[in-house]
Amino acid sequence: MKRYWITACAALCLSAAAQATGPTGIAFVHAPEMGSGVCTGGTPEKAFACAREKCIREGGNAQACKRIAWCFPARWSVDVFLQNADGYHWHEFSCGLDSRETAATVAEIQCDRKTRPYLRECTVTRFFDPNGKQVEPK
């Protein structure tokens, strides 16, 4: 009986360790003209709460910092800045992508002037690796 109890405890410990190091999601929060936040986490609630706090620290407020995107697993992500001819500008976030190269291709499609002729400017502002680490564009 003691051997079964030890085996069961070991299995539970290994399961908890696997969950702690398992895949994470990524959350994007944005407040136009104020700030943004990006965090990874095991649940949308935890990741969005963290991202909202970062957005507020950048100058947003709780009401303006809106949930924009969540991907699970996080994988690669890209943040693209876009501006139309009238000066209106915004960010588009894409996540859950296979690689940095795929993220760059998604950004190229978002910035394609043939499908979006109204764009004055469109550029990648940053990438995020599968762990949520910011990676500057080349």
Tag the structure with descriptive keywords.
single chain; alpha+beta; four-stranded antiparallel β-sheet; three-stranded antiparallel β-sheet; 7 strands; flat
Please characterize this protein's 3D structure:
The protein is an alpha+beta fold and 138 residues long. The chain is built from 3 helices and 7 strands, in the order αββαβββαββ. It has a 4-stranded antiparallel β-sheet with strand order 5-4-6-7, with helices on one face. β6 (119-128) and β7 form a beta hairpin. The longest helix has 19 residues, at 2-20. It is flat. The model is unreliable at 5-19 (pLDDT under 50).
Largest sheet: 4 strands, antiparallel
Strand elements, count:
7
Q: Which structural class should the secondary elements be placed in?
A: alpha+beta
Radius of gyration: 19 Å
Q: Average pLDDT, to the nearest integer?
A: 88
What pattern of helices and strands is seen along the backbone?
Answer: HEEHEEEHEE
Percent of residues in β-strands: 35-45%
Q: Tally the helices: what do you get?
A: 3
State the strand order across the main sheet. 5-4-6-7
Shape assignment:
flat
Unreliable segments of 5+ consecutive residues: 5-19
Provide the helix percentage. Answer: 25-40%
- Alpha-carbon distance between the two ends: 60 Å
